[in-house]
Specification:
This protein has about 350 residues and is mostly beta strands. Helix content is about 5%, strand content about 30%. It has five helices and 27 strands. The strands form three sheets. It has a twelve-stranded parallel beta sheet with strand order 2-1-3-6-9-12-15-18-21-24-26-27. An eight-stranded parallel beta sheet has the order 4-7-10-13-16-19-22-25, with no helix packed on it.
Length: about 350
């Protein structure tokens, strides 16, 4: 059944209805939450689009409405910024630390969500000072981000679900702690993702196409770097792919940039032992370490780390960790968006 798309406007007075904040616009839309099953069923629910005018919106958002699009109406994605500043080390009114998974500036907890031409940011500060601080927490199926930017430091982008078990008791406190762990598919096209430690992490199946991945220098390392010391400045990814999933994180035609010194950043480490991360035809900056990957003391043979035709100063196949792989043409041919995202192609 065809349904008329709902259009709402934020900070765009020439349109009606017009809202002052994104929160107000979200509250006005008829909402229907769904049980988390995979693959998520298509819902007979009218699509809704929130058009957001230029501005900086200091709001902490939770989005549960399926079939929703947020689109920035500036000349660039930097013109529309949704930002908040919660850090994991901060104390809540009850005296308990907030913890990683309650810090997200924006939490997506639904299916068929799209964001275009927006910036998501957590400006709490460096992880050494404030702890983990998520710009975006994405939980659900068929969630798509086109021409968006994500700014943070430690743990910028969390691609839910959580692993089944935390490493430290109480480590998963937050909105996903007691929820069933159901897989979702996520796609990021022409996006910028910036952070320092494990700044893309989680269990989802996530496809990154033509994205810029920027590793920031850690503030607590700057003095050592200036003194000429060799330091480790962080990790791009920390996947926790479930054991039976053939694909985890896949980066295609992406560019890895940084303000870190040469040979100081790992491509990834396994948050859980069956992590899967592959870079296909990506340009790697000089900040990438020759060995490329860190095993985080997980059993070799369980996680899977691979590259195919990496290039640039950080591409060093002969020096890569012996537990990683250089894909053959035949192996790389299996990494199509249709295979990775199980028949869903939002681009």
């Amino acid at each position: 059944m065809n349904q008329t798309t709902i259009h709402l406007y934020v900070n765009m007075p020439q349109h009606s209805p017009n809202f002052r904040t994104v929160s107000e616009a979200l509250e006005s839309i008829p909402c229907e939450t769904t049980e988390k099953i995979f693959p998520a069923p298509k819902l007979d629910l009218a699509p809704a689009v929130i058009h957001i005018g230029k501005g900086v919106y200091r709001e902490k958002l939770v989005i549960t409405r399926p079939n929703l699009t947020l689109t920035g109406e500036g000349e660039s994605r930097e013109d529309v910024v949704i930002v908040y500043g919660d850090g994991a080390a901060a104390l809540m009114p009850n005296g308990e630390k907030r913890g990683t998974f309650r810090t997200a500036s924006v939490r997506i907890d639904t299916q068929d969500f799209t964001a275009r031409h927006l910036t998501f940011q957590n400006d709490a500060g460096y992880g050494a000072e404030v702890g983990q601080a998520l710009a975006l927490y994405v939980d659900g199926d068929r969630n798509y981000f086109d021409d968006c930017a994500f700014y943070g430091y430690q743990d910028t982008l969390f691609t839910a679900p959580l692993p089944e078990q935390e490493m430290v008791p109480g480590g998963f406190k937050g909105p996903g702690e007691t929820k069933p762990r159901t897989m979702g598919r996520q796609c990021y096209h022409n996006c910028l993702i910036s952070g320092d430690v494990d700044f893309i992490f989680g269990s989802a199946i996530a496809y990154f196409d033509h994205c810029v991945i920027f590793s920031k220098i850690r503030e607590d390392k700057i003095e050592a770097v200036n003194a000429g010391e060799h330091v480790s400045c962080g990790y791009v990814t920390a996947a926790s792919t479930p054991k039976d999933e053939p694909f985890g994180y896949v980066f295609r035609d992406c560019k890895l940039e940084s303000d870190c010194p040469p040979n100081s950043v790992y491509l990834g480490r396994p948050w859980r032992e069956y992590a899967k991360t592959v870079f296909l035809h990506c340009e790697l900056g000089a900040h990438i370490r020759p060995e490329g990957w860190n095993d985080w003391k997980k059993p070799h043979g369980h996680f899977y780390y691979g590259e195919y035709k990496s290039y640039g100063p950080g591409a060093n196949p002969q020096a890569r960790a012996d537990f990683s792989c250089q894909l053959t043409d035949e192996e790389a041919s299996k990494y199509t968006i249709e295979n990775i995202l199980k028949g869903w192609n939002p681009m």
